[in-house]
Amino acid sequence: MVSKNTICLWFNGTALDAAQFYAETFPDSAVKAVHRAPGDYPAGKEGDVLTVEFTVLGLPCLGLNGGPAFTHTEAFSFQVATEDQEETDRLWNAIVGNGGQESACGWCKDKWGLSWQISPRVLTEAVSGPDPVVAKRVFEAMMTMRKIDIAAIEQARRG
Predict the structure, then answer these.
(1) Rounded CA gap, 130 and 119, in Å?
(2) Which pLDDT score is estimated for 43?
């Protein structure tokens, strides 16, 4: 059964590959169902994978193999709250090391062009905390990073 609210992600024939990668990489993620096209369509043929139902960190998603007309942009991203440097490194390295690319401030893209924010909780808490001086120091430290370095964030937090 499809959830009442599902994130639909457009792919160019690679929805199943992406869903399988997400299921292997993120906890509470799984490929739920693969649906094949009942007939030919502009981006494919009868029997091709048309849609894939999957979850990413518990969020219901639908991968749609709609063809090359639309691509992912940074206007949509998954923000993943990590607990420690080990988890931050594991997720970042899985995305970037599997054909993805680094960006700034904890952002990266997977090989399908989907953006991810790998954000340690300590960073989020410090930047949104009650002390504006601490928030500014942490924010300035974050602005120099690609993958977030929790030790450097903690150091900036302490001053």
Answers:
(1) 19
(2) 81
